[in-house]
């Protein structure tokens, strides 16, 4: 699965200390939603101006039409069921069971927090 992020697009990232994933989504230069990308992670921490986390290899790409794709399972050193004592599989299942709600909520929230019009001067500098 490939997706093209056009020149002039931007990324909005969400990190949570209490969730086993982080989220990035992309908007084009006109503010249109392009796609989302979840990383399955652990140990997310916020320290001063730094966010750190341990990436657990598995990712999920979600498209605007509601389709999603589980990525990088072939990169695991062992079966998903055994990797990290099964915690990655459980985290993935938790994410997938509510992915549409999570996306709906965060995309709507980001539209009110990160007004696209504020990004236009930065995008035009590019």
Describe the structure.
The protein is an alpha+beta fold and 126 residues long. The protein has a single domain, classed as FomD-like (FomD barrel-like fold). It is 29% helix and 35% strand. The protein has helices spanning 87-113, 116-125, and strands spanning 10-14, 21-27, 33-47, 50-62, 68-71. The chain has a five-stranded antiparallel β-sheet, covered by helices on one side. It is globular, with a radius of gyration of 16 Å. The two termini are 27 Å apart. This is DUF402 domain-containing protein. Residues 8-102 form the DUF402 domain.
Topology:
Elements: E1 10-14, E2 21-27, E3 33-47, E4 50-62, E5 68-71, H1 87-113, H2 116-125
Antiparallel strand pairs: 1-2, 2-3, 3-4, 4-5
Give, in order, the helices and strands. EEEEEHH
DSSP summary, beta strand count: 5
Shape: globular
CATH superfamily: FomD-like
CATH fold-level label: FomD barrel-like fold
Low-confidence stretches: none
Helix segment tally: 2
Mean pLDDT: 91
Give the structural class: alpha+beta
- Whole-number tally of structural domains: 1
Strand order across the largest sheet: 1-2-3-4-5
Separation of termini?
A: 27 Å
* β-strand amount: 25-35%
Identify the CATH class: Mainly Beta
Short description:
The chain is α+β, with helices and mostly antiparallel strands and 126 residues long.
């Amino acid at each position: 699965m490939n997706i093209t992020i056009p020149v002039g697009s931007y990324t909005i990232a969400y990190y949570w200390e209490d969730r086993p994933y982080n989220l990035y989504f992309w908007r084009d230069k006109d503010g249109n939603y392009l796609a989302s990308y979840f990383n399955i992670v652990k140990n997310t921490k916020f320290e001063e101006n730094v966010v750190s986390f341990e990436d657990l290899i598995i990712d999920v790409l979600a498209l605007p039409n509601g389709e999603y794709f589980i990525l990088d399972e072939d990169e695991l050193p062992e079966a998903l069921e055994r990797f990290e004592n099964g915690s990655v599989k459980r985290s993935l299942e938790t994410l997938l069971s509510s992915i549409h709600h999570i996306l709906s909520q965060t995309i709507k929230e980001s539209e009110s927090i990160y007004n696209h019009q504020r990004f236009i001067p930065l995008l035009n500098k590019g």
